[in-house]
Amino acid sequence: MNNTNFWIPKTGEELERLAGVLSDNPRSAKELIRCHAWFGHFFDGHLGKVQANTSIIQGKPALMSDALVGICYQSGLVRRLSVVESTDKQCTVEAERNDEPPGEVHRFTFTWQMAQQMGLIKAVWNKQAANMLLKRCRSFICRQVFPEAVSGLYTIDEIADFASLPEKEIEALQARSIGFDDYNSKNASSAKPEPAPPVEQKKSELIDLDADTTRVYRSFDREELFFEHCDELNISADQVFTKINADKFDTAKATPAERQKYFYNNIALDIIRRGTFLIEDWQSLTSEHKAPFHKGLSSQYPVLSEIPLTWYEHRLCLPAFAETLILTLDVPETEYQSVRRAFQNYPSDDWRLFDYVSALVVEETVED
∠ CA(305), CA(307), CA(309), 5° rounding? Predict the structure, then answer.
């Protein structure tokens, strides 16, 4: 596969030419070049991604709210960034840093009343209250908890809220900030607008906290389904029964959640499944005793070779991560770095991680 990307300029001349291709007029091209100078390094220099995630507002470069979150993940500082509550009245987001003890949680709630007190309620705020509260709440917690990653960076909705612009321009900017790029304020009615169709994000390098974490990829509601999944992955019945007998795991009495966890943690991955004398909770072993498993897992799944076992060992039992790892066997080695970035940029229980890697597999198949 050719790794050269047409939209990543190598020289100033290429940058000007590509900006002209992507822009409708010289002014827009210059603004895109400015955004690239400010934010291009966050998007691997890809000019198309810069255009999709940035805007110039009264001369100030600004980011989409989702891009701000993605930058936090790219920094490697994020252990968890989760939306706890999101309604038309308030939004609550929690965050944890990788360099702080597990369980040390930062929490922030942004309410409609707070937005009123700040004089923010105008334009799209009245039509997309939950979305606007979410964007503002996420931006605030990113800036407070991960300042070294996003200090000095501001989002489109933040700048638009305080810009001295006509109401319609502010409305258009706020609409862009929540993903309604084609929003037309002249056609807006007092009725609640229809929700925008979901955006395909298979190739996205950034994070959206509205993660796809509830997808049911394999059901474990019945015992027989457990064994059907083993058969689908070409795992022999002898290996399965040897392992579950060694662990004294009762597939009949186990709950669906217990079957799922056991399947991904002890059966789906060959090196763990063959360790018949390995305890079920093998992650609790000392680092010295776990070392051979990293060697075995990275041999079976080469994409793990540059990732420490301490990072991925507890993610193996998450369906989205485990299925994605299995899928990497069909990904060309030239794309391993893209997969590793996706591991960092997507929560490990987010099925869009699986979708992203699936797209790499499809892309390789088409090119072949």
Answer: 100
